[in-house]
Amino acid sequence: MDTYYLTLVLYIFLIYWFIVSVLDRKGILERYNISAYGPILMIRTLRGQDFLDSMAKGEQRKRFWRIYANIGTVLVLIVMVYMFIYMMFNVYLTFVLQPEPTALYKPRNWLLIPGFNEYIPLLYGFIGLVVALVVHELSHAILSVVEGIKVKSMGLLVALVPIGAFAEPDSEQLFDEKEKGKKGVESELNKKPGVNEKKKVATSRERTRILSAGVTSNFCVALIAFVLFFGILFSIQPVSDTIIYVYGVAEGSPAEKSGIAPETFITRIDGSNARGIDGMNKALEGKEEISLTVLNKKGKEGVIAVKVDSERDGVVIVQVERGTPAAKAGLRDGMSLTRMDNKSITGHNDFHEFMNHTLPGQEIEVQTGEETFTVELAKSPYYTNRGYLGIGIANDLLGMAVEEFPDLTVLRSIPSSFTTFSPRYWLSAPLILTILPFLPYPTGFSTFNPLLTHLYEPIGAVSFMGDSIFFIANVLFWVGWVNLVVGMFNCLPMVPLDGGHIFREMLNPVLRIGIKDKKKKEKVSMAIVSTVAVIIFIAIVFTLVGPYAFKFFAQG
Known about the structure:
Blueprint: H1 3-25, H2 28-31, E1 34-37, E2 40-45, H3 49-56, H4 59-97, H5 122-146, E3 151-159, E4 161-169, H6 171-175, H7 185-190, H8 204-233, E5 236-238, E6 244-249, H9 254-257, E7 264-269, E8 272-273, H10 276-284, E9 289-295, E10 301-307, E11 315-320, H11 325-329, E12 336-337, E13 339-340, E14 343-344, H12 348-355, E15 363-368, E16 371-376, E17 378-379, E18 387-388, E19 391-393, E20 400-404, H13 409-417, H14 423-435, H15 450-455, E21 456-458, H16 468-490, H17 498-514, H18 518-555
Antiparallel strand pairs: 1-2, 2-3, 3-4, 5-21, 6-7, 6-20, 7-8, 7-9, 9-10, 11-12, 11-19, 13-14, 13-15, 15-16, 17-18
Helix pairs in contact: 3-5, 4-8, 4-18, 5-8, 5-16, 8-16, 8-17, 17-18
């Protein structure tokens, strides 16, 4: 979204907020059972009670929902522990790695708001968010009815556009808390006969089932959406296996001067199909200029003429990784490596052959033109007992780092993780799914954007659907992703999240062993829950702000 449209949306939103404030002050919203919390409207209704009754009434239905919620409670506890460990591990990694404050750490990307967060597409993210919120709140409402807890109202949350749904169980019944006078639908309910009669209060087990139901349903929807998504994923194939992917471009190289950017696809070379990296380099030999047909990020095809720099010696450095031996020694992007120790480097094969015979801690001399650098190699993070320099190099004559057409291998491999009876795979698969939108193609995945729809086509039973298959796949991916993230986040043991309330309920039986006084037990329970919540909050803030802090102190 460019600046013009972003400014326009902001003005519209401010006008909407002003109108909401005026209507709220004049009491007009209250007359229509609407509450305003800043720009967010809570539109309550008594409708939907018949639907809840039809879903929850009857012994068989009640038994099903209780079994469903009991299983969900176990799942919530597992994910709760998983998420707490994950948050602490993130803090540890931030301390150790001290990452650069990249686009991922921009303040606009701290909130997972579709369209505002640059990694989450507006349409697909919005659909996923609405589905997640509706499913979550509806499940709370159904379990409330199953356990005999009154659902006072249901409704929509609106902030210029609908952003979700909610259900309001009677908090006096659910949490045994006396309610203060409220507006709207609740005032009307208080006028009904029998409202002042003694109400049933949910037991700890019933309360836990109600609280767990929303997260459980988010996970169920995520599972269904991802199963359908991966079914579609295995029903498409690349249109060609001769395409070359550009994942890096060296500074000052012929490719950069011609306007070729990373994440570009080369489909043809001088009008012929690009036959892999070796085929491309053969096509470049002996030529002063070559014509490349490329697809950019937006899927737009174009032809670029590139002058071949046949006089440049060695191999070009595309990228020097921060904090690596190469960076510490002074190597920079765009330099040409001509010699490493006594070995002459004429291409990428010479470079890899030399590095394959190095060891961690080994000192080597790297020559780049007229400069010579002494580098002590680190331990390779990819290979055992091999030295690591920390650079990416060009593997073609135009100063690009390229590879054969990168199929969605990483994405396709995720389902196999669940068929492997290994705790490591089972724990890593959900995490991989959550970080996919934040990683570049082909490691990550966000949508079948216009670029990818040029490169893939449906086959078999779904071939008749044409390009619409990509829209369906995008919706399924984001419905699954948002429900998974909402479910995992809600499992964190911090109030007011469901996980915080469930954590408190789980503490009560443990504390009851040593603390008999009810009030004292509640105080200790709240103190523990609050402490854990503060720790998690600090961990989240540190993970987001840490890279900026490290950069500030490094510059100071």
